[in-house]
Design brief:
CATH class of the largest domain: Alpha Beta
CATH superfamily of the largest domain: ATP-grasp fold, B domain
Bound molecules: adenosine-5'-triphosphate, magnesium ion
CATH architecture of the largest domain: 2-Layer Sandwich
CATH topology of the largest domain: D-amino Acid Aminotransferase, Chain A, domain 1
Number of strands: 16
Order of helices and strands: EEEEEHEHEEEHEEEEHHEEEHHH
Low-confidence stretches: none
Mean pLDDT: 94
Radius of gyration: 19 Å
Largest sheet: 7 strands, antiparallel
């Protein structure tokens, strides 16, 4: 088993470069980072006071699984994944703290756009479509219902906001103005191919990936666009159980929807420092574990053997 619920980690053997809402980034050397995923959970861009059991390890193992699967299924795809083994610099105590929840990755220059792909219309996209018939300003066919599939998956980028700020939806043309035409075209092409390969893989395992967000970095030595960050996890995506899917209504989900609903029902949306009751944290953990097992065919314990 990975270490119990951990919302904050200090590794004194490595220099901490950044701490996001969920992950902490450490420097191993000038080409390599240690990506450590805590059990923190954010909803509506606010971090909860307590964590979700096993979430950091589940997210890390889901991403690692996808990096392997996608590298085989998307021609020409490069990813930042190096290894799940922690670097030799860590002490034994630090090793057990990060066991299963850390990954060594290539250090790259992050493109400041979030590459969102939507296969199904829901959430903020559905709200915009209901009002204006558009999604991120792009006109969509008439007659879509809540949670309908789009005729083709669509690329709807957003800006990548600093901690505490909200990302803003932009058009592909605005994304091109931020990163340059050539990189923007490659990011869009990769995002759509990765989504299609990932969605097909998940669908065979009973999960609909309704939408997701990718991040990309630039390998400045080869000028290649590389898939970075976490990938196709319940934190970066909306996962729906395929067996209960129905057009025209909200779907059950494997992700934070359970927590979001609890926050909304209790008037706690956007409040800082909210403590989730154990039932909410455990039910959320169970959903992440269910998604993990369906995708990988393994329990978390099985995935962690040898780590
Ligand atoms: P959220 O994902 O909830 O929006 P966040 O993105 O601020 O929050 P985390 O996901 O917790 O933060 O932290 C991961 C950070 O690491 C992101 O800023 C991401 O852009 C960055 N990152 C991911 N992969 C790499 C990489 N290979 N090289 C450099 N930075 C990376
Ligand atoms: Mg992130």
């Amino acid at each position: 088993m990975p270490s119990p619920v951990v919302t904050s980690i200090e590794l004194s053997s490595l220099r901490k470069l950044a701490s996001g809402k969920v992950r902490d980034l450490y420097e191993i050397d000038d080409k390599t980072l240690l990506f450590v995923t805590t059990d923190r959970i954010s909803a509506y861009d606010v971090i909860m006071a307590n964590g979700v059991p096993f979430k950091g390890a589940l997210l890390t193992q889901i991403s690692a699984h996808w990096f392997r699967v996608l590298a085989e299924r998307v021609p020409g795809l490069k990813t930042h994944f190096l290894t799940l083994s922690p670097p030799p610099a860590l002490s034994d105590a630090e090793r057990s703290l990060v066991r299963g929840r850390s990954m060594q990755v290539r250090r790259l220059k992050v493109f400041p756009v979030e590459a969102i792909v939507r296969g199904y219309i829901t959430g903020s996209a559905w709200k915009e479509y209901e009002k204006h018939g558009t999604v991120h300003g792009l006109p969509q066919p008439a007659g879509l219902k809540q949670c309908s599939p789009f005729p083709q998956p669509i690329y709807t980028p957003s800006t990548k906001a600093e901690l505490g700020q909200h990302d803003e939806n932009i058009t592909p043309a605005q994304a091109a103005a931020i990163v340059g035409e050539r990189y923007a075209a490659r990011i869009e092409e990769l995002a759509l191919s990765i989504y299609e390969a990932g969605a097909a893989y998940a669908r065979e395992r009973g999960i609909i990936i309704a939408d997701t967000k990718f991040e990309f970095g630039l390998d400045e030595e080869t000028d290649e666009v590389v898939l970075i960050d976490e990938v196709l996890t319940p934190d970066s995506s909306r996962f729906w159980p395929a067996d209960t899917y129905e057009v025209g209504r909200d779907q059950d989900s494997f992700d934070k929807q359970f927590l979001r609903n609890w926050l909304t029902e209790n008037g706690l949306k956007y409040k800082e420092g909210v403590e989730m009751p154990a039932e909410v944290a455990d039910a959320t953990s169970a959903r992440y574990q269910d998604a993990f097992q369906r995708l990988t065919g393994k329990t978390l314990d099985e995935a962690l053997v040898g780590l």
